[in-house]
Design brief:
With 163 residues, the protein is mainly alpha-helical. It contains 4 helices and no strands. It is elongated.
Length: 163
């Protein structure tokens, strides 16, 4: 009876299904370690301030992962943001800077900014985004706790409908 299955994509996870292995907390933490290795391996070529900012970003992302429900991990929106920062935004930003001739990183471009200043600005934007993600993640957890409290109060206390 395969015709009942028409139009269904069996590759899509069902609600409540296990997350993809690359989205597991362990995989996200491994990605954080990989970005930190990239930073540490190139620390001598990066501005000190850039190293500090990137480490602050990865620490914040680790806090999001570590603060999530141990059974489920971070919610899907947090996972997408974390994965994008670790797999694309941070490495791309760092590699673009590292690809420059070291003699040119402090020379002002037509915009008036140096590549080093531009790097710091981009990393500060990512740092702010990571802070926002952490705040949203913590607010979501607090909202879930309040919702659970309301449910329990309604479920186990006398109802207004009791006669």
């Amino acid at each position: 009876m395969d015709w009942f299955r028409r139009g269904r994509d069996d590759r899509l996870p069902l609600p409540g299904a296990e997350p993809a292995p690359e989205d597991s907390p362990q995989s996200l933490l491994a990605s954080i370690v990989a970005v930190n290795a990239l930073i540490n391996g190139n620390a001598g070529r990066l501005p000190v301030e850039a190293v500090v900012i990137v480490r602050r970003v990865t620490d914040t992302l680790r806090e999001v992962v570590d603060g999530a429900d141990p059974q489920r991990g971070p919610d899907v929106y947090a996972v997408v943001s974390i994965r994008a920062m670790l797999a694309d935004y941070l490495p791309t930003t760092l590699r673009a800077y590292l690809a420059l001739d070291p003699d040119t990183v402090e020379i002002a471009r037509p915009s008036g900014r140096t590549p080093s200043a531009s790097l710091i600005e981009q990393l500060e934007t990512l740092d702010s985004s990571a802070d926002d993600l952490l705040a949203a993640s913590q607010a979501h957890d607090a909202d879930a706790l309040l919702s659970q409290g309301s449910f329990l109060q309604t479920k186990f206390s006398g109802s207004d409908l009791d006669l």
